[in-house]
Amino acid sequence: MNMEAPVRTIVKATRPAVVDCDIHPRPRAITELKPYMAQRWWDYLMTYGIRGRHGYVKGHPYPKMTPGYGMRLDAWPDDGSHPGSNLDWIRRQHLDAYGITHGIMNPLGPSGQGDQNNAFSAALASAINDWQIAAFTDREPRLRPTICVPYEDAEASAAEIRRRAPSGQHAHVMMLSRTNEAAGRRRYWPIYRAAVEAGLPVGFHVFGYSGFPVSNTGWPSFYIEEMSEHGTACSALLASMVLEGLFEEYRDLKIVMIEAGFAWLPSLGWRLDQHWKHLKDEVPHLKRAPSEYLRDHVWISTQPMEEPEDKAHLADVIEWIGEDKVMFASDYPHWDFDDPFIAVPPTLGEARRRKIFSENAMALYGFR
Question: What is the pTM assigned to this prediction?
Fold first, then answer.
């Protein structure tokens, strides 16, 4: 009896559906954005270029460990285009290969976010939003666009959300974690208000250039430092949101932390709660313990997922966060891509794995 074919069929049938909450598209060339930009801003881009909020004229303020912004070496298409730019390649290598039912696009560069010139930032973000739909979503409905916003100009960001949201195509509003001021400050509240009015979550993807080092003690020497600092940077981001009273003002606001890891979240909640017990008179606008806001308003994605030696510790972390708040992300096509077939440990159990792979994202984003 030939057992090989039935075994393959059973394995394929029992693999859960996958919603990927973090796919990074990229234009083949900057000229792909020209049709979506006013001549004034195209000329500006050609003359002055993209100028992030940091003191480096060329290159990155942080070390990078692979060519092409940290891409998988096998993600470079045969036609020489950049990883994340060739739709047919994305289909074959990722969507079809893993049975991705929905993939959320989070453009990182160029996205227009955090540029020194706020007006140019708004123009480039708008162009990226047009490009996502024309280059990907119109041709591949499994790929869902996000609304990139020029978040240092909150009013322009709110206007972009209100202009895009009625289409019903977008998964979330996208910001980067390194804002120029703490993300809970009132200067950013128009963005959150517009997102709530549109019924959209706000996704914070790590990275971005705030004008300040991610470390509180200066620029890191090594790439591993930058990657490890995401936990502390995102802790500060969420602490600001909680303590400024953002979630009391917008009780329907949903925040998604993307590519930030998540094992740091319980300890943040514990620490905030401990200090709040003694300092709650400083923040009388908080009606509940800080950890309760985190549990109610924050979703997290799995990549990069901390992998403790004792797998029970991972289950404990997920239980604290809430197993309905954890969503799968691959980070395709980056070097630290998580393979959907092996990324989520079987020790978490099939019911929890189904929630992580698809059910939680389907519920949050309203996918059908």
Answer: 0.93
